[in-house]
Design brief:
By secondary structure, the chain is of the alpha/beta class. 33% of the residues lie in helices and 15% in strands. Among the domains are: 36-64 and 210-280 and 421-441, FAD/NAD(P)-binding domain (3-Layer(bba) Sandwich), CATH 3.50.50; 70-209 and 444-607, 3-Layer(bba) Sandwich (FAD/NAD(P)-binding domain). It contains 21 helices and 22 strands. A hairpin with a 3-residue loop joins strand 21 (598-602) and strand 22. 48% of the residues are buried.
């Protein structure tokens, strides 16, 4: 039964739908204004030496050493997650076997190497999220697979395609400098490696560099503290697959209520004496309804089924509304209509606004249905549009707040501003804790150099951070002027989809195709022209008018660069709507055959 008490007059008479929508919009604005901060993304701290205890690798082989590698190779891929592995598989499929993969982690997996916190699982259906299921013959156990299973699948891919001999793990990039006479990237690493590569592909991923809120006194806390991506089972007990048996007498706090916390809180609620959930902005949480995958169904699928299913899901969550919803989950249902698109008439704008409101109101109504305490339920309600933050899906998170040991500490949009030796302080109240967990996520829309951890030096000694000082300059989000043979694998100035695997599958195939074409045609180097970069940005801005309007009204998040109003934020945009639109741009560009919008240098000539 939906409860409209939030939208009733004092007399008890329900408001008209139009009045309810206006009331909601006022709440949206108020919640956005609470969160707006002048420091935008600077409100987070990077895991530098000042936060060394937060950035160690709990999973790596201790005392690992190896001899430095000195070699010339065709490609160096930075990153061993989905993007790096798919790039490598794409190269192999085109007969290119001479490449190296460099990763800070101790194994393949990227995000799924680092994220092993309790309750962690994918929130996109595993049948379309896990890469290369057909190629490896692997059938996921659950519709939403647990993290340990995803990590093991990454290892499976590494073994199936014999990627391990190419990998340099527990290794960080130090420098990458373009050598103009040799037309190669000279690379050094933290292990003393000296690599000379024709192509440098940055596939560092978007969810690998953990961030912390820049809270006063964050390092003063005397108890145990760690980021969810560095979970300490030595302290909590248990493992990714076993209960945490050492928290029964512990007071635990968790800062953050996004997609990670949604999964962690129910597990902490089962294990800890007391759990304090510090909330700045509540998440919208729909039904997950996880269940085992039907193996008979899986075995009956025809070749090409995964690509078809991915494309169908992408269209469904982009508002394209395919004839048949193959996945049929909460995401496809809630995002069936794209309400951030540019409306061509006032009537259409009102229709989109009403649809968005109804979706969010259904999620707010679910909170009333699940959470027993009305005051707690009100604080858990998300007051923003459905595209403002990533929608979450879980069947235990909201119910966890019905347990007597779980306490919601709502910060009224301000977040925690101070941590003492005893614990966080909110509204003058100090919460004494034994363990403080930071579920503060990863860098997503910060500068590429910040996320990569090194600053490529292109032609004439220009650093990428200098070339991109005001935001990204690219063609298709891939090629950039002044940095020959640097191929960027990220979503900035590119495409984006709720199923990030679908995006990476298409983009990494594009990168591999560029490398293969260069090899086949004797191309020494390739880079974008400035004119092509400018034309691509203009296309992005034109296509993104509706998205920009919608995003400006959203509460700050990584979706809108924390509400930043800078040129960098304006340039770091994506093609909105269906990911297939971006894929189409790449395909048409490849079909032209002559690499338009680039400067190409061949062994004997130069062509623009």
């Amino acid at each position: 039964m939906r409860k409209w008490n939030t939208f009733q007059y004092e007399t008890g008479d329900p408001m008209s739908e139009a009045d309810r929508i206006e009331e909601a919009k006022a709440k949206y604005r108020a919640e956005r204004d609470k969160r707006l901060r002048a420091d935008a993304q600077a409100q987070y701290s990077q895991l530098t030496e000042d936060y060394e205890e937060f950035d160690h690798d709990p999973w790596a082989e201790p005392g690992f050493t190896r001899e430095p590698v000195v070699e010339r190779t065709e490609v160096v891929i930075v990153g061993g997650g989905f993007a790096g592995m798919l790039t490598a598989v794409g190269l192999l499929s085109r007969g290119i076997t001479d490449f190296r993969i460099v990763d800070k982690a101790g194994d393949f997996g990227g995000t799924w190497y680092w994220n092993r916190y309790p309750g962690c699982m994918c929130d996109v259906e595993s049948l379309i999220y896990l890469p290369l299921l057909e190629e490896t013959g692997y059938c996921p156990t659950m519709r939403y697979a647990p993290a340990q299973e995803i990590f093991e699948h990454c290892q499976r891919i590494g073994h199936h395609f014999d990627l391990y001999p190419h990998a340099l793990f527990q290794t960080e990039m130090d420098t990458a400098v373009w050598d103009e006479p040799d037309a190669r990237w000279n690379i050094t690493t933290s292990r003393g490696d000296q690599l000379s590569a024709k192509f440098l592909i940055t596939a560092g991923g978007i969810l690998h560099k953990a961030k912390l809120p820049a809270i006063e006194g964050i390092t003063d806390f005397a108890g145990r503290a760690f980021h969810t991506a560095r979970w300490d089972y030595g302290y909590t007990g248990g493992s990714p697959t076993e209960p945490m048996d050492q928290l029964a007498d512990k007071r635990v706090g968790i800062i953050g209520t996004g997609a990670t916390s949604i999964q962690v809180v129910p597990q902490l609620a089962k294990a800890a004496k007391e759990v304090y959930v510090f909330q700045r902005t509540p998440s919208a949480v729909g039904v997950r309804a996880n269940e085992p995958v039907d193996r008979a169904w899986f075995d009956a699928q025809e070749p090409g089924w995964q690509a078809e299913r991915m494309a169908n899901f992408t269209s469904a969550v982009s508002g394209e509304q395919p004839e048949q919803n193959l996945v049929g989950d909460g995401a496809t249902q809630l995002l069936w209509q794209d309400t951030q698109q540019q409306a061509d008439t006032p009537e259409r704008a009102a229709e989109l606004e009403r649809s968005d409101f109804e979706t969010m109101e259904s999620l707010r109504a679910r909170i009333d249905e699940v959470v027993d305490d009305p005051a707690t339920a009100e604080k858990l309600k998300p007051w923003y549009g459905k595209h403002c933050k990533r929608l979450c899906f879980h069947d235990e998170y909201l119910a966890a707040f019905n347990q007597p040991n779980v306490h919601l500490v709502d910060t009224n949009g301000q977040g925690v501003h101070q941590v003492t030796s005893k614990g966080p302080v909110v509204d003058g109240v100090e919460y004494e804790l034994d363990l403080l967990v930071y579920a503060s996520g990863f860098e997503v829309t910060t500068g590429l150099v910040s996320r990569l951890g090194f600053d490529p030096v292109g032609r004439d000694g220009v650093r990428l951070s200098e070339r991109w000082h005001d935001g990204a300059h690219t063609l298709h989000g891939v090629l950039t002027n002044g940095f020959p043979n640097l191929l960027v694998c990220h979503f900035i100035q590119a495409g984006y989809g709720l199923n990030f695997h679908h995006y990476l599958r298409e983009l990494t195939a594009h990168l591999a195709a560029i490398v293969a074409q260069a090899s086949e045609e004797g191309i020494t180097s390739i880079e974008a022209t400035v004119e092509a970069e400018d034309a691509w940005l203009a296309l992005l801005w034109e296509a993104g008018k509706g998205f920009g309007r919608y995003s400006a009204a959203c509460t700050p998040s990584y979706h809108n660069s924390e509400g930043a109003r800078t040129m960098a934020a304006a340039r770091n945009v994506v093609i909105p709507g269906n990911l297939m639109n971006y894929i189409g741009h790449l395909q048409r560009w490849r079909d032209e055959g002559d690499l338009p919008g680039t400067v190409v240098v061949r062994a004997e000539a130069t062509r623009v």
